[in-house]
Write a structure and sequence with these properties.
The protein has about 525 residues and is mainly alpha-helical. The longest helix has 27 residues. The chain is about 40% helix and about 5% strand.
Protein backbone atom coordinates (compact mmCIF):
# COMPACT_ATOMS: atom_id res chain seq x y z
CA UNK A 1 0.00 0.00 0.00
CA UNK A 2 0.98 3.62 -0.40
CA UNK A 3 2.24 5.31 2.76
CA UNK A 4 1.71 9.06 2.58
CA UNK A 5 3.95 9.75 5.57
CA UNK A 6 6.74 9.17 3.15
CA UNK A 7 10.31 10.28 2.78
CA UNK A 8 10.54 11.69 -0.69
CA UNK A 9 12.67 13.62 -3.09
CA UNK A 10 12.72 17.11 -1.68
CA UNK A 11 13.18 18.66 -5.09
CA UNK A 12 9.71 17.66 -6.23
CA UNK A 13 8.03 19.42 -3.34
CA UNK A 14 10.18 22.51 -3.84
CA UNK A 15 9.21 22.52 -7.52
CA UNK A 16 5.55 22.19 -6.48
CA UNK A 17 5.80 25.19 -4.12
CA UNK A 18 7.60 27.28 -6.75
CA UNK A 19 4.90 26.43 -9.29
CA UNK A 20 2.15 27.27 -6.80
CA UNK A 21 3.77 30.64 -6.10
CA UNK A 22 4.07 31.31 -9.83
CA UNK A 23 0.41 30.47 -10.36
CA UNK A 24 -0.60 32.76 -7.52
CA UNK A 25 1.60 35.51 -8.94
CA UNK A 26 0.12 35.12 -12.38
CA UNK A 27 -3.43 35.00 -11.06
CA UNK A 28 -2.92 38.14 -9.01
CA UNK A 29 -0.81 40.25 -11.38
CA UNK A 30 -1.64 39.43 -15.00
CA UNK A 31 -3.05 42.53 -16.72
CA UNK A 32 -5.40 42.95 -19.65
CA UNK A 33 -3.51 42.34 -22.88
CA UNK A 34 -6.30 41.75 -25.33
CA UNK A 35 -8.03 39.24 -23.04
CA UNK A 36 -9.38 39.06 -19.51
CA UNK A 37 -6.77 38.23 -16.88
CA UNK A 38 -6.95 35.28 -14.50
CA UNK A 39 -7.18 37.66 -11.56
CA UNK A 40 -10.15 39.43 -13.12
CA UNK A 41 -11.79 36.12 -13.84
CA UNK A 42 -11.25 34.93 -10.27
CA UNK A 43 -12.77 38.10 -8.82
CA UNK A 44 -15.70 38.32 -11.19
CA UNK A 45 -19.17 39.01 -9.82
CA UNK A 46 -22.00 36.89 -11.23
CA UNK A 47 -24.29 39.93 -11.17
CA UNK A 48 -22.07 42.43 -12.95
CA UNK A 49 -19.89 40.85 -15.62
CA UNK A 50 -19.15 37.80 -17.72
CA UNK A 51 -15.58 36.82 -18.71
CA UNK A 52 -14.44 36.29 -22.29
CA UNK A 53 -13.85 32.92 -23.91
CA UNK A 54 -10.08 33.39 -23.93
CA UNK A 55 -9.44 31.79 -20.54
CA UNK A 56 -10.80 28.47 -21.78
CA UNK A 57 -9.22 28.12 -25.19
CA UNK A 58 -6.58 25.69 -23.97
CA UNK A 59 -6.04 22.91 -21.46
CA UNK A 60 -3.61 25.12 -19.57
CA UNK A 61 -6.30 27.75 -19.23
CA UNK A 62 -8.66 25.21 -17.69
CA UNK A 63 -5.92 23.95 -15.36
CA UNK A 64 -5.04 27.47 -14.21
CA UNK A 65 -8.70 28.32 -13.63
CA UNK A 66 -9.36 25.21 -11.53
CA UNK A 67 -6.13 25.73 -9.58
CA UNK A 68 -7.21 29.30 -8.92
CA UNK A 69 -10.47 28.07 -7.40
CA UNK A 70 -8.59 25.86 -4.95
CA UNK A 71 -6.23 28.70 -4.06
CA UNK A 72 -9.12 31.00 -3.19
CA UNK A 73 -10.24 28.54 -0.52
CA UNK A 74 -7.03 29.18 1.41
CA UNK A 75 -7.68 32.62 2.89
CA UNK A 76 -8.25 33.73 6.47
CA UNK A 77 -11.85 34.53 5.56
CA UNK A 78 -12.41 30.88 4.66
CA UNK A 79 -10.49 27.66 5.28
CA UNK A 80 -7.17 29.10 6.40
CA UNK A 81 -8.87 30.98 9.21
CA UNK A 82 -12.51 31.62 10.08
CA UNK A 83 -13.86 28.27 8.87
CA UNK A 84 -11.21 26.20 10.61
CA UNK A 85 -9.25 27.41 13.66
CA UNK A 86 -10.87 30.85 14.10
CA UNK A 87 -14.52 31.94 14.03
CA UNK A 88 -16.27 28.56 13.80
CA UNK A 89 -14.24 27.23 16.72
CA UNK A 90 -15.07 30.39 18.68
CA UNK A 91 -18.76 29.59 18.08
CA UNK A 92 -18.09 26.07 19.37
CA UNK A 93 -16.71 27.48 22.63
CA UNK A 94 -13.23 26.05 22.22
CA UNK A 95 -11.33 29.18 23.25
CA UNK A 96 -11.29 31.34 26.36
CA UNK A 97 -10.83 34.58 24.45
CA UNK A 98 -11.18 36.11 21.00
CA UNK A 99 -8.17 38.29 20.17
CA UNK A 100 -9.26 41.67 18.91
CA UNK A 101 -12.68 41.46 20.58
CA UNK A 102 -11.80 42.17 24.21
CA UNK A 103 -13.33 45.01 26.16
CA UNK A 104 -11.04 46.19 28.95
CA UNK A 105 -9.32 42.79 28.80
CA UNK A 106 -12.65 41.05 29.51
CA UNK A 107 -14.15 38.71 26.92
CA UNK A 108 -17.86 37.95 26.75
CA UNK A 109 -18.24 34.67 24.85
CA UNK A 110 -21.88 35.39 24.00
CA UNK A 111 -20.90 38.18 21.59
CA UNK A 112 -19.71 35.68 18.97
CA UNK A 113 -23.37 35.02 18.11
CA UNK A 114 -24.03 38.71 17.39
CA UNK A 115 -24.36 38.18 13.66
CA UNK A 116 -26.02 41.53 12.98
CA UNK A 117 -23.61 43.88 14.76
CA UNK A 118 -20.29 42.78 16.21
CA UNK A 119 -19.72 40.01 13.65
CA UNK A 120 -21.75 41.40 10.76
CA UNK A 121 -18.78 42.08 8.49
CA UNK A 122 -17.19 38.72 9.28
CA UNK A 123 -20.40 36.84 8.54
CA UNK A 124 -21.03 38.79 5.33
CA UNK A 125 -17.43 38.29 4.24
CA UNK A 126 -17.72 34.52 4.58
CA UNK A 127 -20.98 34.48 2.65
CA UNK A 128 -19.87 36.74 -0.21
CA UNK A 129 -16.47 35.09 -0.61
CA UNK A 130 -17.98 31.62 -0.81
CA UNK A 131 -20.57 32.67 -3.39
CA UNK A 132 -17.86 34.41 -5.37
CA UNK A 133 -15.98 31.10 -5.59
CA UNK A 134 -19.23 29.33 -6.48
CA UNK A 135 -19.70 31.84 -9.30
CA UNK A 136 -16.25 30.95 -10.61
CA UNK A 137 -17.07 27.24 -10.36
CA UNK A 138 -20.30 27.77 -12.29
CA UNK A 139 -18.43 29.67 -14.97
CA UNK A 140 -15.86 26.87 -15.14
CA UNK A 141 -18.59 24.24 -15.46
CA UNK A 142 -20.24 26.15 -18.28
CA UNK A 143 -17.03 26.24 -20.28
CA UNK A 144 -15.91 22.71 -19.47
CA UNK A 145 -18.92 21.50 -21.47
CA UNK A 146 -18.90 24.30 -24.02
CA UNK A 147 -15.21 23.80 -24.85
CA UNK A 148 -15.01 20.10 -24.11
CA UNK A 149 -13.11 19.46 -27.34
CA UNK A 150 -10.17 21.47 -25.96
CA UNK A 151 -9.61 18.88 -23.23
CA UNK A 152 -7.88 16.22 -25.28
CA UNK A 153 -5.79 14.64 -22.51
CA UNK A 154 -7.28 11.42 -21.22
CA UNK A 155 -9.33 11.89 -18.00
CA UNK A 156 -9.15 15.69 -18.02
CA UNK A 157 -12.78 16.42 -18.88
CA UNK A 158 -14.28 13.90 -16.44
CA UNK A 159 -11.84 14.70 -13.66
CA UNK A 160 -12.15 18.47 -13.99
CA UNK A 161 -15.93 18.44 -14.18
CA UNK A 162 -16.20 15.95 -11.31
CA UNK A 163 -13.95 18.08 -9.12
CA UNK A 164 -15.88 21.25 -9.89
CA UNK A 165 -19.25 19.65 -9.14
CA UNK A 166 -17.87 18.26 -5.87
CA UNK A 167 -16.47 21.65 -4.89
CA UNK A 168 -19.78 23.36 -5.63
CA UNK A 169 -21.55 20.89 -3.38
CA UNK A 170 -18.86 21.22 -0.69
CA UNK A 171 -19.20 25.01 -0.51
CA UNK A 172 -23.00 25.03 -0.59
CA UNK A 173 -23.07 22.44 2.19
CA UNK A 174 -20.94 24.55 4.50
CA UNK A 175 -23.08 27.59 3.68
CA UNK A 176 -26.16 25.54 4.53
CA UNK A 177 -24.64 24.42 7.83
CA UNK A 178 -23.93 28.04 8.76
CA UNK A 179 -26.87 29.97 7.30
CA UNK A 180 -29.53 27.27 7.27
CA UNK A 181 -31.89 26.27 10.09
CA UNK A 182 -31.32 23.45 12.58
CA UNK A 183 -32.15 20.81 10.00
CA UNK A 184 -33.49 18.10 12.30
CA UNK A 185 -36.05 20.60 13.63
CA UNK A 186 -36.98 22.64 10.54
CA UNK A 187 -35.91 21.02 7.27
CA UNK A 188 -38.56 22.97 5.34
CA UNK A 189 -37.39 26.39 6.58
CA UNK A 190 -35.72 28.79 4.17
CA UNK A 191 -31.96 28.44 4.04
CA UNK A 192 -29.76 29.67 1.17
CA UNK A 193 -29.78 30.02 -2.63
CA UNK A 194 -28.25 27.18 -4.63
CA UNK A 195 -26.51 28.75 -7.58
CA UNK A 196 -25.84 26.47 -10.57
CA UNK A 197 -25.48 29.08 -13.33
CA UNK A 198 -23.09 31.93 -13.99
CA UNK A 199 -25.51 34.73 -14.86
CA UNK A 200 -27.21 37.84 -13.52
CA UNK A 201 -30.52 36.15 -12.71
CA UNK A 202 -31.80 36.22 -9.15
CA UNK A 203 -31.68 32.90 -7.34
CA UNK A 204 -34.39 32.18 -4.76
CA UNK A 205 -33.59 31.27 -1.18
CA UNK A 206 -34.53 27.59 -1.00
CA UNK A 207 -35.84 25.47 1.86
CA UNK A 208 -33.06 23.54 3.52
CA UNK A 209 -34.39 20.21 2.24
CA UNK A 210 -34.22 21.42 -1.37
CA UNK A 211 -30.66 22.63 -0.83
CA UNK A 212 -29.75 19.16 0.45
CA UNK A 213 -31.31 17.58 -2.64
CA UNK A 214 -29.30 19.92 -4.90
CA UNK A 215 -26.08 19.11 -3.03
CA UNK A 216 -26.72 15.39 -3.35
CA UNK A 217 -27.38 15.73 -7.08
CA UNK A 218 -24.03 17.45 -7.61
CA UNK A 219 -22.22 14.87 -5.48
CA UNK A 220 -23.85 11.92 -7.22
CA UNK A 221 -22.97 13.40 -10.62
CA UNK A 222 -19.41 13.98 -9.44
CA UNK A 223 -19.14 10.42 -8.17
CA UNK A 224 -20.20 9.02 -11.54
CA UNK A 225 -17.62 11.12 -13.37
CA UNK A 226 -14.76 10.38 -10.98
CA UNK A 227 -15.50 6.67 -10.55
CA UNK A 228 -14.07 5.97 -13.99
CA UNK A 229 -11.63 8.86 -14.36
CA UNK A 230 -9.92 9.49 -11.03
CA UNK A 231 -6.35 8.15 -11.41
CA UNK A 232 -5.54 4.69 -10.13
CA UNK A 233 -2.35 6.11 -8.59
CA UNK A 234 -4.73 8.16 -6.49
CA UNK A 235 -2.36 9.43 -3.82
CA UNK A 236 1.02 9.29 -5.49
CA UNK A 237 4.04 7.89 -3.69
CA UNK A 238 6.71 10.40 -4.63
CA UNK A 239 9.48 7.92 -3.92
CA UNK A 240 8.36 6.16 -7.08
CA UNK A 241 11.10 6.58 -9.68
CA UNK A 242 8.44 7.10 -12.32
CA UNK A 243 6.87 9.99 -10.42
CA UNK A 244 8.61 12.70 -12.43
CA UNK A 245 7.15 11.24 -15.62
CA UNK A 246 3.57 11.22 -14.34
CA UNK A 247 0.97 13.80 -15.28
CA UNK A 248 1.30 16.04 -12.23
CA UNK A 249 -2.17 17.47 -12.71
CA UNK A 250 -3.56 14.05 -11.84
CA UNK A 251 -1.50 13.22 -8.76
CA UNK A 252 -1.50 14.37 -5.11
CA UNK A 253 -5.23 13.79 -5.18
CA UNK A 254 -5.56 14.48 -1.46
CA UNK A 255 -5.38 18.17 -2.46
CA UNK A 256 -8.21 17.83 -4.99
CA UNK A 257 -11.89 17.00 -4.73
CA UNK A 258 -11.17 13.36 -5.53
CA UNK A 259 -13.43 10.31 -5.70
CA UNK A 260 -13.09 9.44 -2.01
CA UNK A 261 -13.58 13.07 -0.99
CA UNK A 262 -16.88 12.96 -2.88
CA UNK A 263 -17.83 9.71 -1.13
CA UNK A 264 -16.93 11.28 2.22
CA UNK A 265 -19.09 14.28 1.36
CA UNK A 266 -21.97 11.97 0.51
CA UNK A 267 -21.52 10.39 3.95
CA UNK A 268 -21.55 13.86 5.53
CA UNK A 269 -24.66 15.04 3.72
CA UNK A 270 -26.67 11.86 4.25
CA UNK A 271 -25.66 11.95 7.92
CA UNK A 272 -26.96 15.53 8.08
CA UNK A 273 -30.21 14.63 6.31
CA UNK A 274 -30.86 11.92 8.87
CA UNK A 275 -34.00 10.16 7.61
CA UNK A 276 -34.13 6.37 7.73
CA UNK A 277 -32.80 5.83 4.20
CA UNK A 278 -30.11 8.49 4.60
CA UNK A 279 -28.79 6.94 7.79
CA UNK A 280 -28.08 3.73 5.91
CA UNK A 281 -26.49 5.57 2.98
CA UNK A 282 -24.32 7.68 5.31
CA UNK A 283 -23.03 4.52 6.97
CA UNK A 284 -22.47 2.79 3.63
CA UNK A 285 -20.44 5.65 2.15
CA UNK A 286 -18.44 6.15 5.34
CA UNK A 287 -17.52 2.45 5.35
CA UNK A 288 -16.43 2.66 1.70
CA UNK A 289 -13.98 5.41 2.62
CA UNK A 290 -12.74 3.54 5.70
CA UNK A 291 -12.15 0.46 3.54
CA UNK A 292 -9.87 2.42 1.19
CA UNK A 293 -6.88 1.72 3.42
CA UNK A 294 -4.56 1.76 0.42
CA UNK A 295 -4.84 5.54 0.46
CA UNK A 296 -5.32 6.56 4.11
CA UNK A 297 -5.30 4.89 7.51
CA UNK A 298 -5.65 6.06 11.09
CA UNK A 299 -2.46 7.63 12.41
CA UNK A 300 -1.13 5.82 15.48
CA UNK A 301 2.45 7.00 16.09
CA UNK A 302 3.11 8.56 19.49
CA UNK A 303 6.83 9.21 19.17
CA UNK A 304 7.92 12.84 18.98
CA UNK A 305 10.31 12.07 16.12
CA UNK A 306 7.46 10.74 14.02
CA UNK A 307 4.63 12.94 15.22
CA UNK A 308 2.24 14.47 12.71
CA UNK A 309 0.16 17.20 14.28
CA UNK A 310 -2.39 17.41 11.48
CA UNK A 311 -2.24 13.66 10.79
CA UNK A 312 -1.68 14.15 7.08
CA UNK A 313 -1.87 10.42 6.33
CA UNK A 314 -5.58 10.62 7.15
CA UNK A 315 -6.34 13.52 4.80
CA UNK A 316 -9.11 12.67 2.36
CA UNK A 317 -9.34 16.24 1.06
CA UNK A 318 -7.52 19.41 1.95
CA UNK A 319 -5.93 22.52 0.52
CA UNK A 320 -2.43 23.91 0.25
CA UNK A 321 -2.03 27.42 1.66
CA UNK A 322 0.79 29.51 0.26
CA UNK A 323 3.14 30.89 2.97
CA UNK A 324 0.85 29.55 5.66
CA UNK A 325 3.21 30.52 8.50
CA UNK A 326 3.00 34.22 7.62
CA UNK A 327 -0.76 34.01 7.30
CA UNK A 328 -1.02 32.43 10.77
CA UNK A 329 1.14 35.16 12.28
CA UNK A 330 -1.20 37.79 10.88
CA UNK A 331 -4.32 36.03 12.14
CA UNK A 332 -3.64 35.53 15.87
CA UNK A 333 -2.18 32.04 15.42
CA UNK A 334 1.53 32.84 15.60
CA UNK A 335 3.22 29.63 16.72
CA UNK A 336 5.85 31.58 18.71
CA UNK A 337 3.42 33.94 20.45
CA UNK A 338 2.13 33.26 23.98
CA UNK A 339 0.49 36.64 24.55
CA UNK A 340 -3.11 35.86 25.42
CA UNK A 341 -4.25 39.24 24.07
CA UNK A 342 -2.77 38.43 20.66
CA UNK A 343 -3.54 34.74 20.29
CA UNK A 344 -6.39 32.25 20.28
CA UNK A 345 -5.99 30.34 23.53
CA UNK A 346 -7.89 28.32 26.13
CA UNK A 347 -7.40 28.21 29.87
CA UNK A 348 -6.01 25.17 31.63
CA UNK A 349 -9.32 24.03 33.15
CA UNK A 350 -11.06 24.04 29.79
CA UNK A 351 -8.16 22.13 28.23
CA UNK A 352 -8.30 19.47 30.97
CA UNK A 353 -12.07 19.17 30.60
CA UNK A 354 -11.96 18.79 26.82
CA UNK A 355 -9.25 16.13 26.84
CA UNK A 356 -10.42 14.39 30.01
CA UNK A 357 -6.88 14.45 31.35
CA UNK A 358 -7.89 13.11 34.77
CA UNK A 359 -9.54 10.03 33.27
CA UNK A 360 -9.26 8.18 29.96
CA UNK A 361 -7.55 11.12 28.29
CA UNK A 362 -4.45 10.73 30.42
CA UNK A 363 -2.77 8.70 27.66
CA UNK A 364 -4.43 10.49 24.71
CA UNK A 365 -1.61 11.92 22.61
CA UNK A 366 -3.92 14.44 20.94
CA UNK A 367 -3.15 16.69 23.91
CA UNK A 368 0.64 16.28 23.59
CA UNK A 369 3.12 19.14 23.40
CA UNK A 370 3.35 18.82 19.62
CA UNK A 371 -0.32 19.78 19.52
CA UNK A 372 -0.65 22.17 22.46
CA UNK A 373 1.79 24.40 24.30
CA UNK A 374 0.93 24.65 28.00
CA UNK A 375 2.18 27.71 29.89
CA UNK A 376 1.96 27.28 33.64
CA UNK A 377 1.97 30.64 35.43
CA UNK A 378 1.87 31.54 39.09
CA UNK A 379 -1.91 31.92 39.15
CA UNK A 380 -3.18 30.44 35.88
CA UNK A 381 -2.45 28.05 33.05
CA UNK A 382 -2.81 29.08 29.41
CA UNK A 383 -2.86 26.65 26.49
CA UNK A 384 -2.07 27.47 22.85
CA UNK A 385 -2.90 25.25 19.90
CA UNK A 386 0.18 24.31 17.85
CA UNK A 387 -1.51 21.99 15.35
CA UNK A 388 -0.46 24.16 12.42
CA UNK A 389 3.12 24.72 13.54
CA UNK A 390 5.05 24.56 10.27
CA UNK A 391 8.56 24.04 11.64
CA UNK A 392 8.35 20.29 12.33
CA UNK A 393 6.31 19.80 9.17
CA UNK A 394 9.01 21.37 7.02
CA UNK A 395 11.97 19.59 8.58
CA UNK A 396 14.45 17.53 6.57
CA UNK A 397 13.19 15.37 3.74
CA UNK A 398 10.03 14.14 5.43
CA UNK A 399 6.83 15.64 4.06
CA UNK A 400 4.08 15.41 6.64
CA UNK A 401 1.65 18.10 5.61
CA UNK A 402 3.49 21.42 5.48
CA UNK A 403 1.23 24.27 4.35
CA UNK A 404 -1.72 21.87 4.32
CA UNK A 405 -5.13 22.48 5.85
CA UNK A 406 -7.16 19.24 6.04
CA UNK A 407 -10.86 19.71 5.29
CA UNK A 408 -11.97 16.07 5.43
CA UNK A 409 -10.10 13.49 7.51
CA UNK A 410 -10.65 9.81 8.10
CA UNK A 411 -11.83 9.83 11.77
CA UNK A 412 -15.02 11.62 10.73
CA UNK A 413 -16.04 8.54 8.77
CA UNK A 414 -15.79 6.45 11.96
CA UNK A 415 -17.88 9.06 13.77
CA UNK A 416 -20.57 8.93 11.08
CA UNK A 417 -20.72 5.15 11.41
CA UNK A 418 -20.92 5.54 15.19
CA UNK A 419 -23.78 8.00 14.85
CA UNK A 420 -26.11 6.01 12.62
CA UNK A 421 -25.27 2.32 12.77
CA UNK A 422 -28.16 0.66 14.67
CA UNK A 423 -25.99 -1.56 16.86
CA UNK A 424 -24.73 0.07 20.06
CA UNK A 425 -21.73 -2.24 20.16
CA UNK A 426 -20.76 -1.48 16.56
CA UNK A 427 -21.15 2.22 17.23
CA UNK A 428 -18.93 2.07 20.32
CA UNK A 429 -16.42 -0.05 18.39
CA UNK A 430 -16.14 2.68 15.74
CA UNK A 431 -15.45 5.32 18.40
CA UNK A 432 -13.06 3.09 20.29
CA UNK A 433 -11.10 2.36 17.12
CA UNK A 434 -10.17 6.03 16.84
CA UNK A 435 -9.63 6.40 20.57
CA UNK A 436 -7.28 3.42 20.73
CA UNK A 437 -5.34 4.78 17.74
CA UNK A 438 -4.89 8.00 19.72
CA UNK A 439 -3.32 6.19 22.64
CA UNK A 440 -6.32 5.78 24.93
CA UNK A 441 -6.07 2.56 26.89
CA UNK A 442 -8.13 -0.47 25.90
CA UNK A 443 -9.33 -0.56 29.51
CA UNK A 444 -10.94 2.85 28.92
CA UNK A 445 -13.15 1.78 26.05
CA UNK A 446 -16.59 3.36 25.81
CA UNK A 447 -19.11 0.95 27.37
CA UNK A 448 -22.51 0.36 25.81
CA UNK A 449 -24.59 0.23 28.98
CA UNK A 450 -27.38 2.80 28.53
CA UNK A 451 -25.74 3.83 25.28
CA UNK A 452 -28.90 5.10 23.61
CA UNK A 453 -30.55 6.44 26.76
CA UNK A 454 -30.53 10.12 27.70
CA UNK A 455 -27.16 11.01 29.21
CA UNK A 456 -28.34 12.20 32.62
CA UNK A 457 -24.79 12.36 33.92
CA UNK A 458 -23.67 14.82 31.25
CA UNK A 459 -22.08 18.06 32.43
CA UNK A 460 -23.33 19.68 29.24
CA UNK A 461 -26.55 18.66 27.47
CA UNK A 462 -28.56 16.04 29.33
CA UNK A 463 -31.10 15.99 26.48
CA UNK A 464 -28.69 14.08 24.26
CA UNK A 465 -28.11 10.34 24.37
CA UNK A 466 -24.86 8.97 25.68
CA UNK A 467 -24.02 7.89 22.11
CA UNK A 468 -24.32 11.44 20.78
CA UNK A 469 -22.47 13.01 23.71
CA UNK A 470 -19.59 10.56 23.33
CA UNK A 471 -19.33 11.33 19.62
CA UNK A 472 -19.43 15.06 20.38
CA UNK A 473 -16.55 14.73 22.83
CA UNK A 474 -14.50 12.91 20.21
CA UNK A 475 -15.18 15.62 17.62
CA UNK A 476 -14.00 18.18 20.16
CA UNK A 477 -10.72 16.38 20.81
CA UNK A 478 -10.01 15.29 17.26
CA UNK A 479 -11.04 18.38 15.31
CA UNK A 480 -9.73 21.15 17.53
CA UNK A 481 -8.84 24.09 15.23
CA UNK A 482 -10.48 22.43 12.22
CA UNK A 483 -13.95 23.98 12.47
CA UNK A 484 -16.06 20.82 12.60
CA UNK A 485 -17.43 20.84 16.16
CA UNK A 486 -19.91 23.71 15.70
CA UNK A 487 -21.58 21.88 12.83
CA UNK A 488 -22.10 18.81 15.02
CA UNK A 489 -23.48 20.84 17.92
CA UNK A 490 -25.92 22.60 15.59
CA UNK A 491 -26.97 19.42 13.80
CA UNK A 492 -28.00 17.93 17.16
CA UNK A 493 -29.43 21.19 18.49
CA UNK A 494 -27.40 21.17 21.70
CA UNK A 495 -29.20 23.30 24.28
CA UNK A 496 -25.86 24.09 25.90
CA UNK A 497 -22.24 23.02 25.72
CA UNK A 498 -19.06 23.77 27.62
CA UNK A 499 -17.81 27.25 26.75
CA UNK A 500 -20.80 28.45 24.72
CA UNK A 501 -21.45 31.47 26.97
CA UNK A 502 -25.22 31.10 26.49
CA UNK A 503 -27.47 29.60 29.15
CA UNK A 504 -29.82 28.09 26.56
CA UNK A 505 -28.88 27.93 22.89
CA UNK A 506 -31.65 28.69 20.40
CA UNK A 507 -31.93 28.41 16.64
CA UNK A 508 -31.16 32.14 16.43
CA UNK A 509 -27.75 31.43 17.94
CA UNK A 510 -27.08 28.55 15.56
CA UNK A 511 -28.31 30.16 12.33
CA UNK A 512 -26.28 32.97 10.81
CA UNK A 513 -28.54 35.57 9.21
CA UNK A 514 -28.45 36.04 5.46
CA UNK A 515 -26.82 39.30 4.34
CA UNK A 516 -29.19 42.06 3.27
CA UNK A 517 -27.51 42.12 -0.12
CA UNK A 518 -29.01 38.71 -0.85
CA UNK A 519 -32.43 40.35 -0.80
CA UNK A 520 -31.45 43.71 -2.27
CA UNK A 521 -29.33 42.50 -5.19
CA UNK A 522 -30.66 38.97 -5.50
CA UNK A 523 -34.27 40.16 -5.57
CA UNK A 524 -35.10 37.51 -3.01
CA UNK A 525 -37.69 37.95 -0.30
CA UNK A 526 -37.79 36.63 3.23
Amino acid sequence: SINRNYTFKKGYYEIFIICMKQIIYILLTTTMLGLMSCSDWLDVSPKTSIPTDKQFESESGFKDALTGIYLKLGTTTLYAGDLTYAYLDELAGLYSDYPGYNTNAVFDQSIVFDYENMFLSKKNGIYSTMYNIIANINNFLEYVDKNKDVLVTERYYETMKGEALGLRAFLHFDLLRMFGPVYKEHPASKAIPYRIAFDKDATPVLPASEVVDAILKDLNDAEKLLKESDPLDFFTDQTDEDFIDKNHFLVNREFRMNLYAVKAMLARVYCYKGDAESKGLATEYAKQVIAASKYFTLYKSQTASNYNSIRYAEQIFGITVNEFSNLLIGNYMDMENTNTQQHFYLDGDKFKFFYETADAGNTDWRKNTEMFEVINGASRTDVFCRKYNQKPLNGGYVYSGANAVPLIRLPEMYYIVAEWVPSASESADALNTVRFARGISYSDEIPTTGYDDLDNTSEEDKNQTKRINEIMKEYRKEYFAEGQLFYFLKAHNYSTYYGCGIETMTEAHYQMTLPDDEYIFGNNSK
